[in-house]
Amino acid sequence: MAKRSLQASLAGVKQAKKAFDNLGWTQDNLAAEVNLKTRQPVWRFFTNRPIERYTFIEICSVLELNWREIAENPPSEGIDSEAGQLISIEALVKQVRSQRRDKVQQQCGILHLLDTNYPVAIEDIYVEINISQEITSRQWIEITNLEYPTCKELNQTASKTIPGIEAITDQSKLRILGQPGSGKTTFLQYLAIECNRGNFASNLIPIFISLRDFADESKKTGDFSQTTRSPAFWRSRMSG
User: Fold this and answer.
1) Does 122 lie in the same domain as 177?
2) What does the pLDDT read at residue 117?
């Protein structure tokens, strides 16, 4: 069974202090970020003393450090937070999906439309979309062909389209561009709901973040470049 407490190695303390100094925080700031009632565990962490295992891991996460590189003789296996049993990534994903199911449904399953005074389920209004594989504004046609264009030449500017779900399935990363109101956000919300229900990418965890959330968080921090790197930002989006 894995140890219930961890302590930083001397080299780990040095690395952690450097990361801590770069943040410009006090130990009270760090304790608040880790949701601790007092800063004593933080003090113990930086003085090479053992602290509760998950507090140790959380402190390292906030400092954007790999806890295994900081810990003195870290255990090699992963454990469940309650039973201390070995767990697999698949089991962990299943657990987190279960914890987040209601939040994803609340975020993405119900829409509030203009000119309506009642919420609408996304499946009641969603229409399958097609995605162009090329950006039409970046396609080229000979200028001589624009004087008296034929139907064939005009059609050359229209790139091939594929169903949106197919585009998502084929690509691990995808940026979707479109005019306002073309359905980009609704499509992403639909994907999150389908993933939430296990109909799409059931081995992944759906996380829906709107640009409004990003902008609001960045205004608070005053730094638009660091927001999505903040562990606090992701914890607030992952919490149920």
Assistant:
1) yes
2) 76
